[in-house]
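Lecture 7 notes: from sequence to structure.

We start with a single chain of 134 residues. Read the sequence below before looking at the structure.
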Amino acid sequence: MSPTARSSPSKPDPIASFFGDLASKGHEPLLHHASGTVRLDLRLENGAERWYLTMAKGDLTVSHRNAKADATIGMDRKLFEGMTRGTVNLTAALLRGVLKIDGDLSLIMAFDRLLPGPRRSRASFLERQEELAG
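Now the structure, written as tokens:
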């Protein structure tokens, strides 16, 4: 089943949206130091959904390739949905042992930089900056 087949018109698929945004952006300056491939294996009730990300000094391409990657991350699809919404932190999930990684840890940490943080974190940061300036 494709990711869009699971989505209803009123509720877009957050994972497809996340990777679609990455693909349309094409370049992420935060990753100017990272080059390699990351494959996400997202577990479903029946099978797996795969996303393949190629990073080349900030240039990004996204596909559904089922190929060997420099780093792989395996987890339940629902957990990754939380990461794309900023409600679950990849590093914290790794430390809790709820995801499986293999390969180049630096690429996994680079991928983590692409995930959104908690919604209020930017507001809190800006509020702290105003307090310090005032």
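Confidence is low (pLDDT under 50) at residues 1-5. Keep this in mind for problem set 3.
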